[in-house]
Every structure is written in C-alpha cells, then in structure tokens.
Design goal:
single chain, mainly beta, hypothetical protein yedk fold, five-stranded antiparallel β-sheet, five-stranded mixed barrel, globular
Length: about 220
C-alpha cells in the first residue's frame, strides 16, 4: 500500500504534462511537496462537468465516519488512501467513483517501508533523463460526506489505486504497489468506460523503475 509519496513537479509543468488549460489550473503558485501523507492536500487532475481537464488540490483519503470502539463517540474520520484494484468494481466505497470519478494523481516518487523499529524507507521513481521523471497514479475522487465531532462534514478527497507488486517493489512490500499509468493511457483512464479503465490496472514494468533513496530516518524525498 502507499501511505507516502512526493510531488516535486512545478505547477506549470504539471499543467503542460497533463494537458490542462491555463484557466483550469487552480493550484496557483504551488510549492514542491517532498512528502505527502494521508489527509494532506495533493494535486489532482480530473474531468470537470464540461468535459475539460482541471488541476486542483484535494485531500488524500476518502473519509468515512469513525466511532471509538470503547465509548462509541465520534472521533476523527477514517481516511481510505488506497483502493485495491480487485475491489473497485464491487466495493460500495469505491464503485461509484470508479465508474464516474476517475482522476490522475501527479507524482515524482513514492515510498514503501520495510521492517520495524526502525523501518527502512525506500523511495521508488521512474527511470529517465531526469532524476525524478514525473508520472501519474491511477486515482479516484469524491466529495466525502461523514459525521464529524461537530456534526455533518464534507471534504473533496482522492484515493490511489493499488495492484500487485512488481519485481522491484516486491522485496520491500511483497503484496501491493500503486498503479502507475503511462502517458498514452491518461485519456483512457479519465474518459473510458469502466471496462476500458479496468484494463489499465496493472503493475508497472519493473525494468523502467528505480530506487532513488533508502534510509532509516529520512522519510521525505529530497528535491535533488
């Protein structure tokens, strides 16, 4: 699963990479994000109601109401930051978004941890001429409505879809990895029908990936 990733792509570069018009870029002068954790804001590319792409910040993790197992009282909402590829067509939490609200999640690397006390953190990126070539996760978005401590709340959220780990990720995280889309597949992901979109939920080619950083204490991906 993916609980930490980075996006150090300049906002203007994201706009061009993901074919978003100037007036549909709602990031402003966004700063590089060397570490994005669940419940934090991250850039997302989605289709607007008029069928055009827009680039905007959303909160990572679909929210649902959560109660204390001891008291039954409402506590901080759960954040579902990953959606399994084998659940997106059947789970009530994911199905509606998979059918109608798919998005691209721009990134430059993602992190997986191995071991405990202390864990070793491995940062994965794509190979290329740049140190961290930009890419996009397959994502879903929704306006999450849930019961908070102060009553009914709602927040615009996104989640990242995971699939079977490939050969470079498997030694660190044996089961899952985020779905990375190829640029030629972006349009099919955001506008294709559910069957066409589901075809894209595959492990990325391990030969085209690399580990760019590992360590026990540094949890953010450096900009250089």
């Amino acid at each position: 699963m993916c609980n930490l990733y980075s996006n150090t792509i300049p906002a203007e570069a994201m706009r061009r990479l993901f074919d978003v018009s100037v007036e549909r870029n709602y990031l402003g002068n966004a700063e590089p994000l060397p570490a994005i954790f669940p419940k934090q804001m991250g850039p997302v590319v989605r289709m607007a109601e008029d069928g055009r792409r827009e680039l905007l910040p959303l909160s990572w993790g679909f929210r649902t109401t959560k109660r204390s197992t001891k008291t039954g009282a409402i506590i901080q909402p759960a954040a579902w930051n990953n959606a399994r590829d084998d659940k997106v067509r059947s789970s009530g939490l994911w199905k509606g978004s998979f059918e109608h609200r798919r998005c691209l999640v721009p990134a430059s690397s993602f992190c997986e941890a191995k071991g405990r006390n202390p864990a070793t953190y491995y940062w994965f990126a794509l190979k290329g001429d740049e140190g961290r070539p930009p890419f996009a996760f397959a994502g879903l978005w929704q306006t999450s409505c849930y019961q908070g401590k102060e009553g009914q709340e709602e927040v615009a959220t996104y989640t990242v879809i995971t699939t079977t780990a490939n050969e470079i990720v498997k030694p660190v995280h044996p089961q899952r990895m985020p779905v990375i889309l190829k640029p030629d597949d972006y349009e099919q992901w955001v506008t294709g029908n559910p069957a066409e979109a589901f075809e894209l939920l595959q492990p990325y080619n391990a030969d085209d990936m690399q580990i760019v950083r590992s360590g026990k204490s540094e949890k953010s991906d450096p900009l250089t």
